[in-house]
Amino acid sequence: MQSINTQERIILGIDPGTAVMGYGLVKQTGSKLELISLGVVKMGNLDDHMLKLQRIFEKTVALIDNYHPDCLAIEAPFYGKNIQVMLKLGRAQGMAMAAALSRNVDITEYAPRKIKQSITGNGNATKEQVAGMIQRLLNFTETPDFLDATDGLAVAVCHAFQRNVGGGSSSSGSKKSYSGWGTFVKDNATRVSGVGKKK
User: Fold this and answer.
1) pLDDT tens readout for residues 185-197
2) Is 187 an active-site residue?
3) Contacts (Cβ under 8 Å, ≥6 apart) of 180
4) Active-site annotation holds for 15
5) Is the pTM of this model over 0.85?
6) Which of 8, 15, 34, 109 is labelled catalytic?
7) How many domains does the chain have?
């Protein structure tokens, strides 16, 4: 049996969005990281918000079925002034999380600032700075269509770094993990208490 430091795992990282969803996959072997894939799911051609959510769910399930990741790392919606944008981002994130839960894939959620800090050392880094560092870390030169793809990859790399610096410990509120429906429901009782009840 391999030790925890040399054990291989595949990490799927997702930057959720309702116009573009960025994703990236890395293979981690100890402290070594290798790029598997990155890309975007474009939804600009879909007018119906529900169809966009369906696309997010289906694409996430397809990525999981294709690459068999050991875990999903996902960016948490940032807190902004526009409540409608926050709601849409939360729904997009929820669909990706539901897809992972449907395949029993462990989920860890990271705050945007935590991801930027982990990758660049600066919690206020720009998307371009994050992309540049990711390209250097994983040694690739291809420029993806959207910075959302490198953002998705950054979430995966951020998650990989957590094990290397103490097995995933982080400051409160910057990371949340779910290993299945049970833990999700336990941690979010008020959000799901009305499920299945008639109104």
Assistant:
1) 555 555 444 444 4
2) no
3) 101, 104
4) yes
5) no
6) 15
7) 1
